[in-house]
Amino acid sequence: MIANREYSNDRLGDNIFKNIVQQLPVPVIIFDNDLRFMVASDRFFEESPLKKENVKIGDHWYKLIPDMPLKWRMIHQKCLKGEDLKCDEDPFPREDGSTEWWKWRIKPWFQRAGDIGGIILYVENITEKKKTENGLLKNIRSLEKSNNNLSKFAHICAHDLHQSLRTISLYTQIMQTDHSIGLNPALNKYMNRIIDAVDQMRNFIRSMLDLSHSKDKKLLLTNVCMNEVVQRVVIALKKEIEYKQAVIKYNNLPSVRANKYLITQLMQNLIFNSLKYSGESIPTIEINAEDKGKLLLFSVQDNGIGIEKKHLKKIFYERKRINPTQQQGSGLGLSHCNKIIKEHGGKIWATSTINEGTTIFFIIPKAAIEVSYPSDSSL
To answer: Is there a contact between 237 and 244 (Cβ–Cβ < 8 Å)?
Structure first.
């Protein structure tokens, strides 16, 4: 009676064990020490090419998978000798020429006496994951090649622009030299501005190339007086300012640690946007700065047509124009501003009210030495 009871208990235990394994939420299969099938989880059959209805208890592993690679047969023997092995990515060539990828762990299971009773195999089919990864790698290589071509193209364009700008500057200086006697002072003044503008553009092109390669190359940073930056921008935008009869106000702006030419481009973009989106009113643009400890908070405030609230978070991304139904343009100006500020370790954002105006804020680290101009520089 006792023997029969023990036999019944063993069968009951086996059934419970098999039910537990079958319901495991991971792909698991168990073989005895002769590599004959004992039990597997339902999840295993979901991920394996084996069909549950075609697998019977006692079937040999290599009968179930006739194209079992020699490498795996050796792994099975190592495991039967007590080794616990695993691999996160393993290619599995099939007879039809295809390749599957598997993540696996294989370890021995032990009988009560301590002898190895067989093998427990955890497997996960990661073939689709590998295909996705390989596709991404292919796209990345394609993008890298495209970026390299664009970089070469940018350098060629920059070189040609430098040559043209150098020619403009050279001929302007020749005209000044050849006609120095009796040269109209106003004309001489405009020629000097041409030369300054050409130099600024050449430096800006160089800084733009540095910015486009900023991951590999550090920007040239110096102490830049923001008063001088705004003065340069006002001169560059003189025609637009006079046409709009705009009022530009700025006073006692400090210095920042920045790339002079990129920060000038930033301010030029912001002021030009305020002029562009002024609507019917005479533009009034105020530029201020506040000391925030290690950072300086700048603001460029206008009285223009404003921006809808839903657009405020989008305007600093490429191809997002402030008022796409009312204005033309590429939408790259504020995106470029965003990139410049980020490269300087800062942040840029905006607030706005429709028909009342917009304020662009940006924070940027302070320079070691601050320079202020005591005179009011309103125009």
So the answer is: no
> What's the Cα-to-Cα distance from 369 to each of 12, 17, 213, 228, 254, rounded to whole Å?
84, 76, 28, 15, 9
Distance CA(260)–CA(210), nearest Å, equals: 13
Residue linked to tokens 């490429």 = 318
| Whether residue 172 has pLDDT greater than 70 | yes
Cα angle at 233 between 229 and 238, to 5 degrees? 150
For residue 143 the two structure tokens come to: 């993008």
308 token code pair = 């809808």
Strand segments, DSSP code E, in the chain are 28-32, 37-40, 85-93, 99-110, 116-125, 222-225, 247-250, 255-258, 284-292, 295-301, 347-353, 357-365
Take residue 26 and report the two structure tokens written for it.
């991971």
CA distances to 131, 197, 376 from 90, in Å: 13, 61, 72
Q: What are phi and psi of 257, to 5 degrees?
A: -85, 105
pTM above 0.70? no
